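The instructor's notes for this session suggest beginning with a concrete chain rather than abstract definitions. Hand out the sequence below and ask the class to guess, before any prediction is shown, which regions might be ordered.
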Amino acid sequence: MYNIQTLNKIAACGTDLLDKSKYAVSDDAANPDAILVRSAAMHDMELGSNLLAIARAGAGVNNIPIDKCSERGIVVFNTPGANANAVKELVIAGLLLSSRKIPASMDWIKTLKGKGDEVSKLVEKGKSQFVGPEITGKKLGVIGLGAIGILVANAAAALGMDVYGADPYLNVEHALKLSGKVHYVKSNDEIFEKCDYITLHVPATPDTKGMINAETIAKMKKNVRLLNFARGDLVNDADIIDALANGGMACYVTDFASDALIGVENVVAMPHLGASTPESEDNCAVMACKEIADYIENGNITNSVNLPNLEMAITGSAKICVIHKNVEGVINNITAPISAAGMNIENMMSKSKKDYAYTCLDVSGNTDGIAEKLKGIANVVGVRVVK
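After discussion, reveal the predicted structure:
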């Protein structure tokens, strides 16, 4: 029986996929074999000795200690694309909110309460202060063409916007999904210079932290409208506020409110609503639970942020799964004791991702004791035998 701990509420449509004869799912599991999490902070959490995997029901993994997990041979999964449509819809709403001054107009309407028969006249007299442009025909720059960015770009193009997209890591799978109406450009600077609206869809990394700042804002069109439904750390709040005050930016729409941004004129701040739909929560839960089950039962890895994707069937007696540092000589050191123990290697696959690698060996023969032998090899951080 495998113990699965939930650190947040995970939709039942996901956890119900975990066979109750194999898995016990609870929020208080002691020393769990796997953890399902959404937004709960894990950096100060003690990771038990049984922990094999963590699955984030969502895309961002800033709340998970990735380096610590890698060092311990713990696979960290996320669910890319599961909440993409929910975020896309909110971004499209953000485009309209930024243009038509809808939030400010609604706040103003509330001030007319109690005016009785005067309301209609006051509305007609005051509405001119909320005039804003249509989005059709305007240039939208999409920075980051992953699962969400592509949906946003395609939807905006369908709405009649002139869309530009930039992503140096655009893969073939995503490129094939991109509308032919979207102009692919090689640099963010080209988007800064051309676009009336800019939306961010990149992960928060040391390289992207603060990527929108006084220097990059200076490259943008005057009165640009900026949308951030990716991560709050991508922008420098103080520089955004300065740009809004001096006319360098017309509006900032963000799903990441901060104390500095609350109440600032022409800031539309939301309480991280991007994935807050029942459909999104269900999709994320289903994907996360499937990833956990496939890894525990079959040793397959899909959508890991710290290890490579690898899928291999078991045709022999067992599948030996080894997580190790991506350094020279480790695979030879792994295969030698397996052969010495009289096992035949029927098939082997090995893939790497940055500093770590995952090697799976489909073997025939007696695997008793082999896991402990392999765990003693230098640079090996995790070993499992799946039958």
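Then share the key points. The CA atoms of residues 319 and 386 lie 5 Å apart. The two ends are 15 Å apart (CA to CA).
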